[in-house]
Amino acid sequence: MIMASKAKNKISDITRRDIFDTICLWNISWHGRMDEVDFLGRVFDLSNMPSNDPRYSNVAGDIFQHRINNDDWPDDWIFSDRRFNLLYCEDETLLRFLCEMLHPRVRRDDESIKLLKDFNKLLEKDGFRLVARQHISGRPVFSAELIIDSAPAGLIDIQKQFTDADETYVSQQITRIQAALENDPALAIGTSKELIETVCKTILHQRNAATEETNAPLPKLVRATTKALALTPDDIPETAKAAKTIKTMLSNFANLADGIAELRNLYGTGHGQKVGTKGLGIRHAKLAVGAATTLAVFLLETHRERS
C-alpha cells in the first residue's frame, strides 16, 4: 500500500507515535466496548481493504481470524498495520479515529475526558484539537478542528488548578463552554455561571468554610467565597498602598457576579423563554465567559496561594 505523503500532513509522525504510546501506556482498549471490526467500520471501508489471508475476501476476515479465532495479534496491532496506516494516513483519518475512540457508544465519560486531555495536549502542537460539537443523551460527541483562535486563557488556567477528583467535572464544563462559544452562546453563558459556582463551592469546601450560603444564589455564593479568602473591602487596611483602588475592585466582584447571574437568567440556558425571544450573540457570550473566568481564576489562585 502506498503511504500518504508526509508533507501533506500537519500532524507529524512524532505526535502520532506519542498518541499511540499514550493509549498503550494506559492500557486502554482503542475500540472500547465495541467489537474491533464494528469500531473500524466507523472509520474505514473494510470491504475494500485487502486480506493477507487467501481464505478471506477483505481485512475484516483477517481481524476475525487473528483476534478471535487464534488471538495471535497483539492488542496494539492497529497502530502498525500498513493497511490502516495510522502513522502516515491523512490527518482527517487519524482525527476521525481518535474522535471515534471518545464516542459515548465506545467508552465511558471518565475515560473519554482523560483521553481528550492527553490527545489535545499532543495535537495542539500541530495545530489541531478535538471539541464537542454535538451531544447524545447529554454526552459529548467530538470532532476535530484547526486551532485558529486559542481558547480563552482563563479556561486553561482554571483547568490547571484542578488536580483532584473535581477535575473531570470541571473539564466537562470547560469543554462545554469551548464548544458552545461559537455555536450556542446561551449555553456558554449558562455554563459560565455554573463554572463560577463550582469554583466557589470547591474553595469553601476545601477551606472548611461551607455554610448555608453554599447553596445560595451566585452573588451570595461569591460574597461568601471572598469573605472566606479575606478579599472583602473591609479586609484591606487603610494604610495599604492603593487601598482605595483595591477596595473598589474587590467590591466589583459582587457586581460582576450579579451581572453574570442576570445574563444567565435573561438569556442563558436554565430558564425557558417565550417563543421569538432574541438571544445574545457570540461577542456577548465571550464577554460573559471572559468575565467569569477572570473572576474564577483570581479566586482559585488566591485560594491556592493562601493554602
TrEMBL record:
<dbReference type="Pfam" id="PF18860">
    <property type="entry name" value="AbiJ_NTD3"/>
</dbReference>
<protein>
    <recommendedName>
        <fullName>Abortive infection protein-like C-terminal domain-containing protein</fullName>
    </recommendedName>
</protein>
<dbReference type="InterPro" id="IPR041427">
    <property type="entry name" value="AbiJ-NTD3"/>
</dbReference>
<dbReference type="InterPro" id="IPR026001">
    <property type="entry name" value="Abi-like_C"/>
</dbReference>
<feature type="domain" description="Abortive infection protein-like C-terminal">
    <location>
        <begin position="219"/>
        <end position="301"/>
    </location>
</feature>
<dbReference type="Pfam" id="PF14355">
    <property type="entry name" value="Abi_C"/>
</dbReference>
<feature type="domain" description="AbiJ-NTD3">
    <location>
        <begin position="10"/>
        <end position="176"/>
    </location>
</feature>
